[in-house]
Design a protein that fits this description.
Elements (H helix, E strand, L loop, with lengths): L1 H35 L1 H12 E6 L6 E2 L5 E13 L6 H19 L3 H13 L5 E7 L1 H7 L9 H4 L1 E10 L7 H4 L1 E6 L2 E5 H5 L1 H4 L4 E7 L5 E4 L12 E4 L3 H18 L3 E8 L5 E9 L5 E2 L4 H4 L9 H11 L7 E3 L4 E4 L2 E4 L8 E3 H6 L3 H12 L3 H10 L30 H6 L8 H12 L4 E2 L4 E6 L2 E5 L4 E3 L5 H17 L13 E9 L10 E10 L6 E8 L10 H4 L1 H13 L15 H15 L13 H10 L3 E5 L4 E4 L12 E6 L1
Parallel strand pairs: 2-10, 25-27
Antiparallel strand pairs: 1-8, 2-3, 3-4, 3-5, 6-7, 8-9, 10-19, 11-12, 11-24, 12-13, 14-17, 15-16, 18-21, 19-20, 22-23, 23-24, 26-27
Helix pairs in contact: 3-4, 10-20, 12-14
């Protein structure tokens, strides 16, 4: 018995010792949690019960110059269904009515929705998709449907809201308005105005501290660290919706007619550089056109004959030749280092002046004018081209501006044909926007301004920032040269390569361009054309400058020249802006008198000179006073009775006709 008691004692000691070790371990762990890992666990507990929530700022709107809304943020809703949330009785009571409502609202049959909702419940689906992309109005309707109107916990409706960017005018100018999107977590990218001016549009998010309460809900905790969101500012663009619509559809029509690959058009206000319209359309596989790339800003290529204006400006500035200087077109072909320069007109133009050579876009004339005068000093010519801004970017606000390239005589790849090829727009690379800025400088009397897409940043009616006109070059050339350039640009339309565009109803000035693209590859097999027209209107007092580029037009009918393809777009824009509203060109002065009208006028004028007197109101006046007043006005008075005037036969306010008799009844 004693032995057995002894064994029991050992067991008690062993258990006690084990409990003692556990107690020590617990004490160590508690101490470790409290003092060593305490900060970590306190932080973890706080994060799980108290959390900072971001309050997103409202993004600003983008407006056109005429106040139309170009881009705005709207709420977008996705509706899902937690099939396990409703009780059995609520689900069975409302599932048919809910299915009927969904059928009417979303277009599928009631039976389809009954089957889907029951299947979701059977499969324990707590996130079944009902509809996405709903507007606020649709969201309000659907949340009032049977079962859903019971709310999230009883009805199972799950509402997800996000803000999306909408363009109220549709696809027009979509690429210029641009976008901002998240491409990875906290990594964003974008294009156009949306991206370039995001620091103004996006505003600043706020934050609020919330504490977790029952059923996964969070309650706001007001404290000094709370930050209210600051909404984004509105951006006022220079785009004019009316002109934009004209430009877009004029370009689209021509692209479709010529089955071209892509094209662009820009309309710019001459004095300010404000871009009033910009369209960039590329062809999809199905033959439709849409905005993908900002060709006007991003695409750099050989301009062809539109570059000849830079030749002429340099030549006239240096006075090495004048517009009257005569050149021989040599049968339409000349050679440099074995390479031929040809005119588009077979056989050439004979001997013609420099001005006429420009108007007819003669390659042989323009190349001779440049090469003959600058072959021994090509730096002088190239320095002119550099000073016109062709050798560098315009530094537009937009991302992805195309790279400009002008070969320099100091370059290792400069050759004997670099100068003559440059003279007719080859071997150089410029963007349509650079070419437009150069022509606009001529229209603007030598002042080169930077193209501008935004005029103002506003907060409601308060101006936050005004975008002033930015002058790139105060005087691109002399006034004398400007005057001569304007004259030949007018003649290009009147009697030159663009004579098909001439109209006596409104004036235009500009230059055609047709460039061969990809001509050096595949032995010329992959060659295609780029057609362009750039200029300004009206010619005498330029209000707008414009460039049109059409790439890879169909050559089936041999009509791929700038005057045929790009020119009509330019004309259509100018015509619609200035001649859509009927106008009277002459007002004839008949200087013929109309007798009845003359008599009425004379009578009216006489009354103005001597105002007609009116019968006064003498009721209640003493008889003697009334008689004296009326007789002084030239009225004969017949008074009946004595005392004050009770009635008068002529009403007060009537015209007084001399020697008329008035009868007064006195009491």
């Amino acid at each position: 018995m004693a032995v057995e008691d002894k064994h029991i004692s050992y067991r008690i000691y062993l258990v006690a010792f084990a409990i003692f070790l556990i107690a020590i371990a617990i004490a160590v762990k508690l101490t470790n949690i409290q003092w060593v890992e305490g900060d970590y666990y306190r932080k973890l507990a706080k994060e799980r019960t108290v959390k900072n929530f971001i309050i997103p700022a409202n993004k600003g709107n983008i407006y056109s110059a005429d106040g139309s809304l170009l881009a705005t943020s709207i709420p977008n809703y996705t509706i899902r269904f937690d099939a396990l949330a409703p009780k059995v009785e609520n689900f069975e009571k409302n599932v048919v009515a809910l299915s009927d409502s969904l059928a009417i609202f979303l277009g599928k049959s009631s039976g389809f929705y009954q089957n889907e909702l029951r299947k979701a419940r059977a499969n324990n689906n707590r996130y079944y998709l009902i509809a996405r992309g709903l507007s606020y109005t649709d969201y309000i309707k659907i949340k009032e449907f049977p079962l859903f109107k019971l709310g999230a916990y009883k009805g199972g409706i799950i509402i997800e809201q996000k803000t999306i960017r909408e363009h109220p005018i549709g696809k027009i100018a979509e690429r210029t308005i641009g976008y901002e999107r998240e491409i990875a977590e906290n990594t964003f990218s974008g294009k156009g105005i949306e991206w370039a001016y995001r620091k103004y549009l996006n505003g600043k998010d706020g934050k609020i501290l919330k504490q977790k309460i029952a059923k996964g809900q969070w309650k706001p905790i007001r404290d000094i660290n709370e930050v209210d969101p600051q909404d984004g500012y509105d951006v006022i663009s220079t785009i004019d919706v009316y002109i934009q619509d004209i430009a877009h559809h004029a370009l689209l029509k021509q692209l479709q007619e010529y089955e071209a690959d892509h094209g662009c058009v820009v309309v710019m206000e001459t004095e300010t550089g404000h871009v009033k319209a910009i369209a960039n359309l590329g062809r999809a596989k199905d033959g439709t056109y849409y905005e993908t790339t900002n060709y006007a800003v991003a695409e750099s290529g050989e301009p062809g004959s539109t570059f000849k204006l830079a030749d002429l400006m340099a030549i006239l500035e240096d006075k090495v030749a004048d517009t009257s200087t005569v050149f021989d077109t040599n049968g339409g072909e000349i050679r440099y280092s074995g390479k031929a320069v040809r005119d588009s007109h077979k056989g050439g133009y004979g001997k013609i002046s420099l001005a006429r050579g420009f108007e007819l876009s003669s390659n042989t004339v323009m190349v001779q004018a440049v090469y003959d005068n600058y072959q021994n000093n090509p730096e002088k010519f190239v320095n002119h081209i550099n000073s016109y801004g062709f050798n560098k970017k315009l530094k537009m606000d937009f991302k992805g501006e195309g790279r400009a390239y002008i070969p320099q005589p100091s370059d290792k790849n400069w050759s004997n044909i670099s100068l003559p090829w440059m003279a007719f727009g080859y071997g150089v690379s410029v963007t349509p926007m650079q070419t437009l800025a150069f022509y606009n400088a001529v229209a603007n009397n030598g002042v080169m301004v930077k193209p501008q897409f935004v005029s103002e940043i506003k907060e409601w009616n308060k101006t936050i920032k005004k975008m002033d006109k930015e002058v790139i070059n105060e005087r691109i050339c002399s006034p004398e040269t400007i005057s001569k350039l304007k004259a030949v640009l007018v003649n290009v339309v009147k009697k030159g390569t663009a004579s098909k565009l001439y109209s006596k109803d409104f004036s235009m000035a500009g230059k055609t361009g047709t460039a061969q693209v990809n001509y050096a590859k595949d032995g010329g097999a992959g060659k295609y054309y780029s057609s362009s027209f750039v200029g300004y209107f009206p010619a005498d007092k330029p209000k707008y400058s414009c460039i049109v580029m059409v790439h890879k037009p169909s050559t089936v009918n041999n009509n791929y020249y700038g005057a045929d393809v790009a020119g009509p777009v330019f004309k259509r824009i100018a015509q619609k802006i200035f001649t859509d509203v009927p106008s009277t060109n002459e007002i004839k002065n008949l200087n013929k008198k109309i007798p009845k009208q003359e008599n009425n006028f004379n009578e009216y004028f006489a009354r103005l000179q001597k105002p007609q007197q009116l019968v006064p109101n003498v009721k209640g006046m003493p008889g003697m006073d009334a008689i004296a007043l009326l007789e002084n006005l030239g009225v004969k008075v017949n008074a009946v009775g004595m005392g004050k005037v009770k009635t008068q036969s002529l009403q007060a306010g009537q015209d007084i006709i001399k020697n008329t008799t008035i009868t007064l009844e006195l009491l």
